Amino acid sequence: MNRLELTGLTTRPSQVWGGVRLVPLVREAPVDGLRLHREVYERLGAGAVEVGPRTRYVSYIPHGLVADWSGDGEGAEGQGGQSAAYGTQFGGPDAPRTLRLPRPPLHRMAKRRPGDRLRFLPLHLALEGYLALHFGGPSTAWEEWSRRALRDGLSPRAEDAYLGWSVRGLGDALRIFEIHPDQCGVMVYVADALAAAFVVPHPEDYRLLHASLVEDLYGELVHQYALYGAPVAEFGARLGDGAHIRTLADLRAAARGQERAWEEAHEALFARELLDSSYGFDRVYRMGSFTLWRFLPPFVRDGGGQHIGETITDHKGQVAYLKTFRLSDAQIRRGYLLHVLAGAEWELSRAAATLGSSREELVRRIRAAGFSELLKGNV
Amino acid sequence: MNTPPEPLADLRETLADLVAAEDVLLFANAAITATGQREFRSGALDQQLSLDFLHTYVRVNYRRVYAASLALDINDHNAARIVLGLLETAGEASADERRTEGRLIAARLALLPPQRVYRLFGEVRRAGINNRRTRAIMRNWLAARPDLGHDAVKYRSGVKTAARHIHLRCAEGAGAEVGAFLFRPGKLPRYEHPLLDAWRRAHYEQGAVAELPFTVAEGFAARHGMKREAFLKRAAPRMTRLERLRTLEQRAVGDRRPDVDLTVMPLTRLALYVLALPFEERVARRTELTGALRTAARRAAGRHAGSWGRVHAVLDDSFSSSGSGQKRRRPLAVALACHHLLEVLAAPGAYRGLWTSGRGDALLVRPWGPTPLGMRVLDALEPGQGGAAPDRLVIVSDGWDNAPAGLAGEVLRVWRSRLDPGRRTAVVHVNPVYDAGGFDVRRLAAGVPTAGIRDAEDLPALVEIARFAEGRTGAAELHAYLDRRVALFLGEGHRQEKQEEEEAVS
C-alpha cells in the first residue's frame, strides 16, 4: 500500500473560528474490533523513550494511546481485565482517572501491554521515523565525510514543533466545536492549510480524545499561519435566486445539494495533498487483523504540504486510526536532501549530478540544511 | 436661492430615521440579552467592552430613546447601567427631559431587586454623583421600602453606603434604631425592631438565627457550626421563592423532597431547574415536572393563550446552547421554556416543536451535537395537521448555524421569495445570546426579524418589537410604540411579581 484510504468516512460541513477550520469526519458504523484509549503521563509530558540499546528519544510526550483489538471494548466494563476506557475513565466512581506511570524512561515507542493491547506514542512514532531518516550514514568511507559522521552516522537530530496551546485560536476553536454524534475524526486547517488529520475507530473514543488535539505537536508553519493569518471565510451555503424551486421538496433537494457540494469540494480542494500523495509506509506492529504503520511523504518539492504520521489500517487497508503532522518547508528540504544523498550512496559528485547542480552548490546546501558536521572542514 | 429640492430632503430624513430605528432595535436587543458575562463563544471582557461602547453611543446620540428603553423588558444589569449613565450625565439633558427621566428611573428602580439597587447606589457614590436630584431619587426609593430594618440586616453595607451618601436623617422615630444599628453597632442593649434584635441575639444564640433572612442566617449558621440539613429545615419558612428552589435538592432527604410548589416558579427559572437535574430524575418525576412547566407557561401566556394559531418552532439544543460557566445552560433553558410557552400560545393541538438534534422528548434535552438549523427549518415549514401551512414559525437559536453554515438563512430567504411571497407564515427568530463582535444578537437572514430574549416569559412582547426589525414598518411607528410602552410603564406598575421575587417572604 502507498496511499491513505479514507473510505467509510464522510465529510461534514466545516466549523470555522477565526483562522482555524475544523472539518468533522463521520463514520456510518464504527470500526469493528478496535478501540483507542488515552493514557495520561505525569510531569507535563517531559519524557524520554528508550528506542534501542543506548539510544534515547527525548521529547514532550503528553499522552500515549492504547489500542485495544481484543474486541470486547463494547460494554465490557468490569468483566475481566481492563474496561473500555483504559486510561481516561469516566465510568465507575472508583476507577482511577489517570494511570500513574512510575517512569521515565518509557520503553520503546510501541509496547505491548498485557492482553490484546498496544501502547504507542502518537506522533512521536512518526517524528522519530522522520528524525531517523537515513540515520546510518554512508557505507563507504568517502573522503569528504568527517570522522564523526563515519563513526556515529547522522548525529542525533532535533526538530522544533509547537504545542497546540501555542497555535493561536486552536484551543478556542476546539472548545466551541460542536461534535457530531457519529464523529470519528477531524481535519484541522489553519489559514486553510491542512495542519493535522486525526481519525479514530469509534465515536466514543473521539469524544474522549477530542480535547487531546490541543496537546499535540504542530509544525512551525502551522504556528506561523495561525499567528499571522487572517480569519478564514466560512463556506456558507448558497442557493442562488432559486428560480427552479417551486415546492418545499425542491427546496429540500437544493439544500441537500449544498451539503454534498461541500463534501466534494473538501476532498478535491482541501484534503487533496493528504489523500493524493503516495507515501512510504513502514510497519511498526501487527495486531490481529490491524496493522500499525508510520509513513513518510515522498519529499517531492512541488510546493504542496507534506505530512508524516502514523495510521492503523484493517486487513483491507482502510484507515481505522490516523494522525498526521505537517512538515515545514525546511523540513521537507532536509528530507529531500537526505533522500538524494542516500540515493547517490552519499557520493557528493553523483548527488550533485542528480540535483543538476555543482558540487560546491550541494556542499552549500548541506551546510545550510544544518548538516555541516557531516562534512570535513576542508570541503 | 440654493434651497435643496424637496424630495431629496425627504429622502435624507427617512434614511436618518431608518438608521436611528436600526440603532434603537440594536440597543434593545443588546440590553435584553447582554449581561457582560462570559458567553459560549466570547469572553467576559469582550462582552463588557462591546456593551460599554453601545451604552455610550446610544446615550450620546439618542438620549430620549436611551431613557425610554427603561420601559422595555431589558435585563436588570442594563437597567442599572442606564440609570447610572443618565444620572452621570444629567447636565446634557434639558429640564423637560430630566423630568421624564426622573420618572422613568423611579419606576424602574421600584422594579429592580433591592440588592441591585443598593449596588447601583454604591456605584453612584463611587462615581461621585451627588446632586439634589440624585439624592431625591435615592431618598424616595428608600422611603418606599416596606421595612428599612429588614434591609439594614440583609443588605447592611448597601444601606449604610446609601444612607451616608444622601445624608439620610436617622435621628428620630423608627429610623433612629436603624441609624444606631448601622453606624453605632453595639451601643443599644436591645432593639425594638424584631429583626434588628434577632441579628443582635444571633451572635450568641442559635435560636435567633432562624428568625433572620436566609442569606444572613447562612453566615451565622456557619459560625455556630450548625448542621446544614437542620439549618435548612428551620430556615425554610423564611426563604424567598427562588431560595427555596435553589435549596430544594439540598433539603431532600433520601427520596423525600420537601413539598415545594414548583408551579409558582417563573417559567425560565423552572426550566433551568429541570435542566440541572440528572436524566433519571427527570424521567422519574416526569408528570410533576411537565405539569409544573405547563402551569408556569399558562400563567406566562396569560391573555395571549391560544391566540397564535398554528405554531411551528425550531429549538436549538446544539452543544453551544450549554452557555458558559457564568450562564450555565441559559440558551437551552430559554428554548425549553419557549417550547412550553408556545404550546400554550398556539391553538389547541396546533403546535409542533422541533429540536435541532432531532430528539422528540422535550424533558430530556441536553446540549449536544452540531446545529443543522437549515434542515430543521425545512422540516418545520412542512404543513402540519390537516395539510395547512403554519401561521407562525418561531426559531429559538443563538444564530450560529454550522451544518452547513448559513443554510438556514438561505432556506428562509428562498422560501420567502419563491414559495411564500404572500407572507402567510410569519417568521420570527429569538436569540438568547449577545454577539459581542457584532454589537447585536446574530441574525439568520436579512428578511427574518430577530429579537434578543432573556426570559421566555417576554416572548409575546418581543414578537411585537421584532416586527420593526423586518424594516416593513417605519421609524415613526417604532417611536410611537416606544412612547406607548413608556406611558404604560409610568402609568401602571405591571410586572409586580418580578419585584416580589427577591423580597423576603415572611
Explained architecture:
The complex is a heterodimer of chains A (379) and B (506). Chain A has 379 residues and is an alpha+beta fold. Helices cover 26% and strands 26% of the residues of chain A. Chain A contains ten helices and 18 strands. Chain A has helices spanning 124-131, 147-152, 170-176, 203-209, 220-228, 248-270, 272-275, 329-343, 348-355, 359-368, and strands at 9-11, 15-17, 20-27, 35-40, 46-52, 55-60, 63-68, 106-107, 110-113, 117-120, 162-163, 183-190, 193-199, 217-218, 280-287, 290-296, 307-313, 319-326. In chain A, strands 1, 2, 3, 12, 13, 15, 16, 17 and 18 form a nine-stranded antiparallel beta sheet that branches. Chain A has a four-stranded antiparallel beta sheet with strand order 4-7-10-9, with helices on one face. In chain A, a hairpin with a 5-residue loop joins strand 17 (307-313) and strand 18. Chain A is globular, with a radius of gyration of 23 Å. In chain B, the strands form two sheets. Chain B has a five-stranded parallel beta sheet, with helices on both faces. The termini of chain B are far apart. Chain B is mainly alpha-helical and 506 residues long. Helices cover 56% and strands 6% of the residues of chain B. In chain B, helix 20 links the parallel strand 1 (311-315) and strand 2 (351-355). In chain B, helix 1 (6-33) packs across helix 24 (475-491) and helix 6 crosses helix 9 (156-165). Chain B is built from 25 helices and seven strands. The longest helix of chain B is centred in the first third of the chain and has 28 residues, at 6-33.
